[in-house]
Write a structure and sequence with these properties.
Residues 6-33 form a coiled coil. By secondary structure, the protein is of the alpha+beta class. Helix content is 56%, strand content 26%. It has helices at 2-34, 39-54, 63-84, 150-162, 165-186; strands at residues 86-98, 102-113, 116-128, 133-144.
């Protein structure tokens, strides 16, 4: 009987090793997909988003120009969602305070990164000088779906305290991708 039990476990181990190999290949393929975007395409998307952020648009654009610009922005957003794995579900913005050179806006955002859902709430303080615009994130609150491990909860808490959205998005993207791989692997143990 012990040999039969050992054989069952060895077969299960072999199946898991094959799945790990397939998941590793799938991951390497997805990493290669991200290299299909040229540096020029990435820079064009970044420049387009920066222009939009800095408000360089003119108020007297024709409807066809606006439609073309909207199409360009949708393409940029699609590129960024494929590149990061983050799918935005909703966003709301409310202006809290606006003076001559200072604007405070409250943002609420909900999104998915692979299979992990999260919500963000923060205030964006914009200070305008003659030459530039500086933006600072304050009061960042990050809510993740319950049931995540304690290391992720600690990281989310730290990112919220420091107001570091860029680090949060980068880390979440990587974590969520590997979370999916782990979830698929451990389904065999159930």
């Amino acid at each position: 009987m012990d040999k039969n039990i050992c054989q069952v476990y060895e077969d299960e181990i072999q199946l898991l090793e094959e799945e790990i190999k397939l998941l590793t290949e799938k991951y390497e393929d997805s990493q290669q997909e991200s290299t299909f975007f040229s540096d020029e395409e990435i820079l064009m998307s970044i420049n387009s988003l920066q222009k939009e952020f800095q408000g360089e648009s003119k108020g007297n654009e024709s409807p066809s120009d606006l439609k073309a610009r909207l199409g360009s922005l949708e393409t940029d957003l699609s590129f960024l969602m494929k590149f990061t794995g983050i799918q935005f579900r909703s966003h709301s913005k409310q202006t809290v305070e606006k003076t001559g050179n200072r604007t405070v806006q409250k943002h609420r955002l909900s999104a998915n990164c692979h299979s992990l859902s999260f919500q963000l709430e923060f205030q964006l303080l914009e200070m305008r000088n003659k030459e530039s615009v500086s933006a600072v994130i304050t009061d960042l609150n990050i809510v993740m779906a319950s049931g995540e491990n304690s290391d992720m909860r600690k990281f989310v808490s730290s990112a919220g305290e420091h107001g570091n959205l860029l680090t949060f998005f980068r880390s979440l993207s990587s974590y969520a991708e590997w979370y999916e791989h782990r979830r698929c692997t451990f389904l065999h143990f159930k």
